[in-house]
Write a structure and sequence with these properties.
single chain; 224 residues; mainly beta; eleven-stranded parallel sheet
């Protein structure tokens, strides 16, 4: 366990595994190629996971940033902390809650988040170049697709907003969930109690021909 204080930089080198590090405000921990940090606590500081590095089980206590160009697993982003994935970084199984956030494609670069779980107060931003795959958004959680792709999202009471230039693929909207569409969507499944809001003249839902025929049939029945 290492405590990284303000003005200090601690490097987890190749072949090294650190457990339980604490990174205070103004401090920086760098996880290099081949390095691993487990169960680190960010308390206002920064952990930078370089390509080939791994951070597992990182948590936040009072803000700070987890910069990911390598890999992370099981991050818990809350307490004003943010996981920022960029330049080919991959995050798996992040939990975003409280006042935490995750940005996929930070700086409009290529990045991937897989299996993110978002609950009340948590926000996820998908920028150009970002891919959010298999996320679950619960009550009070929000996803903002600002130019990247969200694929296989399940909205279980949460909300997803797709801006112009953003794309939502194979979204499942459960009870209480809302998909608001200014961009493009395809393969959306709307369950009982779910809502899809398509902005007039802006949003576009691409449907399979059978889906279009079914939609026209429903409209005809209501017009009779």
């Amino acid at each position: 366990m290492t405590v990284v204080s303000s003005g200090q930089t601690f490097v987890v080198s190749s072949g090294q595994t650190d457990n339980g590090d604490v990174v205070l405000s103004g401090g920086t921990e760098v996880v290099s190629l081949g390095g691993i940090t487990n169960s680190a606590l960010i308390s206002g500081g920064t952990i930078s996971v370089k390509s080939g590095g791994l951070a597992s089980g990182t948590t936040f206590s009072s803000g700070g940033a987890l910069l990911v160009t390598g890999s992370t697993t099981a991050t818990i982003a809350d307490n004003v902390g943010g996981e920022l994935i960029q330049n080919g970084g991959v995050a798996v199984g992040t939990i975003v809650r409280g006042t935490g956030e995750q940005t996929v494609g930070f700086g409009a670069t290529s990045a991937t988040a897989i299996g993110t779980m978002v609950s009340s107060g948590g926000d996820v931003f998908v920028s150009s170049g970002g891919l959010l795959s298999g996320a679950t958004i619960s009550n009070g959680g929000q996803v903002f697709v600002q130019g990247g792709i969200a694929s296989g999202t399940t909205l279980s009471g949460g909300a997803e907003y797709v801006s112009s230039g953003g794309t939502a693929l194979d979204t499942t909207i459960g009870s209480g969930g809302t998909l608001t569409l200014f961009g493009t969507a395809s393969g959306t499944v709307i369950s009982s109690g779910g809502f899809e809001v398509i902005s007039r003249g802006r949003g576009r839902e691409r449907r399979h021909p059978a889906q279009r025929r079914h939609a026209r049939s429903i409209r005809r029945r209501h017009q009779q």
